[in-house]
Amino acid sequence: MANTLPVYDVRCAWQVTDVSAFADRGGLSNGRVGLRLCNLGGSKLRGNSSLVSRSGGRNGACVGGSRALTPITKSVLKTEYETPAGVEADVTRLERAVTERGFEVDSRIEEELKGEGGFRNVRRTKLIATIGPSCCSYEQMEALASSGVNIARLNMCHGTHEWHRQVIKNCRRLNAEKGYGIVVMIDTEGSEIHMGDLGGVSSAKAEDGEEWCFTIRKFNGPLPAYTLPVNYEGFAEDVQVGDELVVDGGMVRFEVLEKVGPDVKCKCTDPGILLPCANLNLWRDGYLVREKNVTLPTISSKDWVDIDFGISEGVDFIAVSFVKSPDVIKHLKSYVAARSPDRSIGVIAKIEDANSLRCLDDIIRVSDGVMVARGDLGAQIPLEQVPSVQEAIIDACRKLNRPVIVASQLLESMIEYPTPTRAEVADVSNAVRQQADALMLSGESAMGLHPQKAVEVLRGVSVRMEHWSREESHHEKPPLPEISTSDTGRTSEQICNSATQIANKLGADAILVYTRRGYMASLISRNRPDCPIFAFTESRNVMRCMDLQWGVVPFQFAFRKDLESNLLQSLALLKAHCMVRSGNLVVAVSDVSSASQSGTGVLQSIQVHVLS
């Protein structure tokens, strides 16, 4: 049985609810207009109702035994797009699971919820691992997935399309056979100045004082010793003797000694590991030389080929390198929409160029998410500014309701060593404390000696830091700025803000969101509630997109006629599968309208249930 608070209908005249009245379970309040006394599992709750109106005739509902609420599934499940060949098995699995069980969720999350810790075990921060030679087989990817990876990133700088296609097949196979919910992101190379392939070797070591030759020559066979190819034809013309050449965001540095035709001879001043396709930056007299980089297109001809490949393979996200303006993102999104009209693909803007910081908010608004690529960004701005810029980007993304990924050199030492440095652990902890939506491994997983251990470190640090933050965050968080312009949008925004406040005040175990497009789930996530967010949707595509959002556990679920039916049915199903327990308190919101509301608009509400 489940006891419920009366349903509060919130219409366009909605104002923020005074939730200070909703004290801890059993607390009292002195509401200005009147008191409502509701039975919540034996305790009493009094609430201030001055800013909401009670819906007539709704006095709560009781959930009957799960036997009386058997799964009711629709004859045709929505997928909202023609499925690319690469995801057919995954979609078939989801449809079968929804038909047989009434819902589908990542099997790893399901096991966590069934465990002793229950809701406390659910990690809020999402994990991204770059797939490379160290972790590309089915067995290696299964190990990463079992360690907690949510998103598999494919760096299009490396590997052939056939190699990437096999990795995507491995992801789909894991999802189909193991019930995982791994999504796929491709990351474009970009057209900035960078090195080429290293003649087939995975890396090279540059020692202090060694002389190396950077050249635009093309080689059919092996590279000559101490020679590095460069992709930019005007490289030798643009550099000057005495310039500092910064490789891969400062991992190796060279001083330009001499120019001879297409060759540039340099001396290593900071030794390190050279990787294929590493980015190059020129510094002159203490300033970054960026004129040529500004004239290069953000999306190269190779990038367009890679983007077409990603669309054809049904990837979930496309990350764009070296974004300088919002126009690039708008152009790509219109192209993707034309090529894939029935299936949305999220476009992630990588902030790794100093020019992007000048129009950061505009870039965030038009993107589906942002990546703080600290390696290349740190080569374009002073190093001491990177921490404050990272925090500013995370804060801006949260205010504008866009997911944000912190990437580059999180656990760089684990490329070689089985344990990270304490400074790296502190860096990861800081990103979690700042409440970034996701953390990303690059070389640590792609070419490192310990990819699974690196993922486990990220997971362990994230869970511990999230738990500590919840224990310490008893103070009120500053209010978020309003972002919606329409009446409907403002209503949804205030509903989600207030639902989060109510959940935090009551110590709720979870917030349940029923959403068709994922928007209300993102608004709840934006508030960073203390409890996990269970987001129910009919669309597989929306389910996958929500995998990037902080604290969101996406479910695929066949909707019923109204919120109350959805809520009662989903709770019964979750309880039947031991994912919720008696005594759990949940807060529910929805943007799903019923047929009876078609002539009067969407009725939005907040409900509170205690399972018994």
UniProtKB/TrEMBL annotation:
Keyword Nucleotide-binding on entry: yes
Domain Pyruvate kinase barrel residue range list: 123-455
Residue ranges of the Pyruvate kinase C-terminal domain? 493-600
Where in this protein does the record put region Disordered? 468-491
Give the enzyme's EC designation: 2.7.1.40
Catalysis: reaction(s): pyruvate + ATP = phosphoenolpyruvate + ADP + H(+)
Q: What is its main location?
A: plastid
Q: In which pathway does it act?
A: Carbohydrate degradation; glycolysis; pyruvate from D-glyceraldehyde 3-phosphate: step 5/5
Check the record and name the InterPro entries matching this protein: Pyr_Knase, Pyrv/PenolPyrv_kinase-like_dom, Pyrv_kinase-like_dom_sf, Pyrv_Knase-like_insert_dom_sf, Pyrv_Knase_brl, Pyrv_Knase_C, Pyrv_Knase_C_sf, Pyrv_Knase_insert_dom_sf
Q: Where is the composition biased (Basic and acidic residues)?
A: 468-479
What keywords tag this UniProt record?
A: ATP-binding, Chloroplast, Glycolysis, Kinase, Magnesium, Metal-binding, Nucleotide-binding, Plastid, Potassium, Pyruvate, Transferase, Transit peptide
| Cofactor(s), by name | K(+); Mg(2+)
Q: Which Pfam families match?
A: PK, PK_C
The record's subcellular locations are: Plastid, Chloroplast
Q: Name one GO cellular component term.
A: chloroplast stroma
Q: Which GO terms describe its molecular function?
A: ATP binding; kinase activity; magnesium ion binding; potassium ion binding; pyruvate kinase activity
What family is it from?
A: Belongs to the pyruvate kinase family.
NCBIfam families in the record: pyruv_kin (TIGR01064)
State what protein this is by name.
Pyruvate kinase
- Point out the gene that encodes the protein: LOC112275235
